[in-house]
Structure prediction request, 225 residues.
Amino acid sequence: NSNQDLKDEL
Amino acid sequence: MNIFRLAGDMTHLASVLVLLLKIHTIKSCAGVSLKTQELYALVFATRYLDIFTDFISVYNTVMKLIFLGSSFSIVWYIRRHKIVRRSYDKEQDTFRHYFLVLPCLLLALLIHEKFTVKELLWTFSIYLEAVAILPQLVLLQRTRNIDNLTGQYVFLLGAYRSLYILNWIYRYFTERHFVHWITWIAGLVQTLLYADFFYYYFESWKNNVKLQLPA
Prediction:
């Protein structure tokens, strides 16, 4: 899941 | 970006600003735990290494720089500023860093998603953030007389954590965005640490009396 790889939260 | 996430980020930002405002204008860090602030500086330094490798958004980068800058300036103020440092209560702020840092390092080495330097540091920062408030909570309990700004600082931090949990629930249902269970557990533990403080904070607010924690 690429969504999970990208850590877009702070 | 949903409303919970935005509100969470804004309360996080507000907490840092309240603390900086207190230190900068009153020139006092009474009741503030340097240990907690140093742990947060370490949390941000290990988590935000990705500003050099990934670009997510301008918002994301700016917020990361603010959290890095503010946490290191708070540490600088308490350690180096010639007036502020006099108000630091070293005798009361006795929590040992390594009690928290070493278990978090160990846990990150054992439980992680990927065995890469960046991923291990990120995981370490998640674990450490969950417990970094402990020296501050211990200090509040010891000093008992909590000034308004310090109370608000801790309240805003707790609000930020609670809002992030709502954000994960919301993202799960709307985007099918799965936050890893490591993040879930660490986030829940972190939020629960504030439960006791929240209870006394709301009691004092309801009864309109000064916030005091029981000994």
